[in-house]
Write a structure and sequence with these properties.
The complex is a heterodimer of chains A (306) and B (334). By secondary structure, chain A is α+β, with helices and mostly antiparallel strands. Chain A is 48% helix and 20% strand. Chain B is an alpha+beta fold and 334 residues long. In chain B, 43% of the residues lie in helices and 21% in strands. Chain B contains twelve helices and eleven strands. In chain B, the strands form two sheets. Chain B has an eight-stranded antiparallel beta sheet with strand order 2-3-4-5-10-7-8-11. Chain B is globular. Chain B starts with a strand and ends with a helix. About 5% of the residues of chain B have low confidence. Classes of the chains: A alpha+beta (306), B alpha+beta (334). Chains A and B meet through helix 4 and helix 5 of A and helix 5 of B.
Chain lengths: 306, 334
């Protein structure tokens, strides 16, 4: 394919490469071109390559050596983790504004910093499965880090430590992010945006802290996180498969079930303690989740004990 | 008094053994928890085989001083960097502590950052009844020199030599360190990639240190050193400015009362010691807080009120002046 477009491709594109003090290597490119067929620089020895790309236009990515039919369309503001054995190739048949930032992590480096880490091992396993590419959309914090690092890398007198700090932050965010979605309840959900994922985590931890209080409302979550109800519901549905109020109800009822099994308190007491202001509401909710009233459930348990 | 002594070649983790034996502390997953009568908080290590070792101390209300002594050693291949922040607890919103008349004990630390050659060893005393956030970093000379090789102005080694026997350089702690230490301590225990998190923060701290170092060096060339009394007063002013970032700038009169200096000498000395004017320092700290809020997805309007601006557009202007882009552009860099 390369030879078909001799005219515009003649403009040499080259990567700014850089060795970082901490032992990583970095490369960056920023270009606007009519057509693009750009291989990533290859690194030896073996290791991992984390690439961040951003572009305006139509971009496709494929691992080197594989046919063009294996190409994947790439969305702007993306992080891609691959092994250095199969460098990526970027192609665009229309005019494009393209910038990329590559971090090369030699395996000797990841041995020191990440080998012991169980989360990292999970990510590595995922990567080993038929030459996977692990992707992650950049949140807005990473996007600004990306832009800053790119600017610094192109400046020949750039501050090496500054670049290193930005790149290490990007790497850390990427891994944390992936770690969260590997743990995710519903792995098929297509939410891989850092901002959204961290929002969900925040809301979840907020709920698990306060769901038993009777002043706890969905409104208080919205106020705390500055999101709209519809957005939050959409995110909850795609990750947990239920609305946020259903999620809270399930959490409360689950807790009440445990309390009933403890057999220390009366049903009405339990209802108030988990934040229901009226007992009939509580009974209805319980019935919806377990298809049985709490009283009957209590009797069942009592019979079993006897 | 609790006492730990370490050889240069021993890993920081060994400090745990001594401490855990001494007081019934809980150790889990290389974190040592203090709880109950002896004090509250934790100590943790992140030993990294690339020659950087970190001891993070986050303790409050110790009932007795805690001393960690790093033995002098012949094998002088490392530096010890300390980033310490020591506050009086429970004063978060109140006035700065009214203790100034007696000078602090020379061995007892106050909030500073320092770099020491491991040849001479170092004693670190964590005072009782204070809030302590401290990072002790032992870094192999090779690693550090590697890290700073592209800074052409003389290496730390030559400057350490010129200070004579003490071989310790120390600088005042600034809001940058305070913010970073705060974040570090809240995240380190829970962080899924602890080693990576540590190396990133050390890298950032080193950058701060070098920046500060060159500013100080330049300022130091055209002026004599400050007395201990002066540095102590100045750090009180700095602490006051850091603490009250939500309020209006306190004004030079109030600050000069806090420091017991005349306004003019306060201004010049502050600039000499911190490399910033009083208001510049206050403003930078304030906007750094704003930036952190923006990172947490707080809307610009709320951020403005949160850090004490009555008008969001004033905040936008100040932000733009400091960072070169408006909050909006910070949030939407595309």
């Amino acid at each position: 394919m390369k030879s078909q477009n001799p005219v515009p491709a003649a403009r040499a594109l080259h990567w700014h490469e850089l060795q970082l003090p901490v032992g990583l290597r970095a490369a960056a490119i920023k270009t606007s071109a009519e057509v693009l067929d750009l291989p990533q620089p290859s690194f030896t020895p073996d290791g991992l390559v984390l690439t961040f790309i951003n572009h305006k236009g139509d971009l496709h990515v494929r691992p080197a050596g594989s046919p063009q039919t294996d190409e994947l369309p790439a969305s702007p503001g993306l992080g891609l983790l691959t092994t250095s054995a199969r460098p990526l190739v970027y192609r665009s048949s229309s005019s494009i504004l393209f910038s990329a930032l590559v971090i090369y992590i030699p395996s000797s480096w990841s041995d020191i910093f990440l080998k012991e880490n169980a989360q990292f091992q999970k990510i590595e396993q995922l990567l080993a499965q038929d030459a996977n590419i692990i992707t992650c959309r950049l949140g807005r914090r990473q996007m600004s880090l990306f832009t800053a690092a790119l600017g610094l890398l192109q400046d020949p007198a750039g501050n090496l430590l500054g670049i290193q700090n930005n790149l290490l932050s990007l790497l850390e965010y990427f891994l944390c992010n992936r770690h969260r979605s590997v743990l995710g309840v519903n792995p098929v959900s297509d939410i891989d945006n850092e901002d959204d994922l961290s929002l969900i985590r925040e809301v979840e931890s907020y709920i698990s802290e306060f769901y038993c209080s009777d002043t706890f409302t969905v409104d208080s979550i919205l106020k705390k996180t500055y999101t709209s109800y519809h957005r939050l519901n959409f995110l909850f549905k795609s990750i947990h498969g239920m609305t946020i109020s259903e999620y809270i109800r399930n959490k409360r009822i689950e807790k009440s079930k445990e309390m009933i099994a403890d057999n220390a308190k009366s049903i009405s007491q339990i209802a108030y303690e988990i934040g229901y202001s009226s007992i009939s509401n509580y009974i209805l909710a319980f019935k919806k989740v377990y298809q049985i009233t709490p009283g009957k459930y209590k009797k069942q348990i009592d019979n079993m004990v006897q | 008094m609790s006492y730990v002594s370490l050889e240069n070649s021993e890993p920081f983790l060994k400090c745990f053994e001594a401490l855990a034996e001494d007081k019934s502390c809980v150790v889990s997953d290389s974190v040592l928890y203090f709880s109950g009568s002896k004090g509250k908080g934790f100590i943790t290590v992140a030993g990294i085989s690339s020659g950087i070792e970190v001891l993070a101390v986050n303790l409050s209300l110790l009932t007795e001083d805690l001393t960690i002594r790093l033995q002098p050693s012949v094998d002088a291949s490392s530096y010890i960097l300390c980033f310490d922040e020591i506050d009086v607890p429970g004063k978060a919103e109140g006035e700065p502590p009214p203790t100034p008349l007696t000078l602090p004990h020379p061995l007892q630390m106050h909030s500073t950052v320092s770099i020491t050659d491991a040849v001479n060893g170092k004693a670190i005393v964590y005072p009782k009844e204070k809030t302590i956030r401290s990072l002790v970093v032992r870094v192999r000379k090779k690693s550090l020199e590697h890290l700073i090789q592209d800074f052409d102005a003389g290496t730390i080694a030559t400057i350490l030599e010129s200070t004579g026997n003490e071989a310790t350089l120390s600088w005042p702690i600034t809001f940058k360190y305070r913010l970073l230490l705060n974040d570090f301590m809240t995240e380190i225990i829970q962080h899924p990639f602890r080693e990576l998190f540590t190396i990133r923060n050390i890298s950032i701290l080193t950058e701060y240190l070098l920046q500060q170092f060159f500013v100080m060096n330049k300022l130091g060339e055209d002026g004599g050193a400050l007395s201990t009394q002066d540095t102590h007063s100045l750090s009180r002013v700095e602490y006051h400015l850091c603490l009250h970032y939500k309020k209006e700038f306190p004004g030079i009169e109030k600050l000069s009362r806090i420091s017991a200096m005349s306004p003019t000498s306060l201004k010049t000395k502050f600039k000499k010691y911190y490399g910033e004017t009083l208001f510049g320092y206050y403003q930078k700290n304030k906007l750094e807080h704003a930036r952190k809020l923006l990172d947490n997805k707080v809307p610009v309007k709320v951020v403005a009120t949160e850090i004490g601006y009555s008008n969001p557009s004033h905040f936008t202007l100040a932000f733009k002046k400091e960072y070169g882009f408006s909050p909006w552009h910070y949030l939407n860099p595309h």
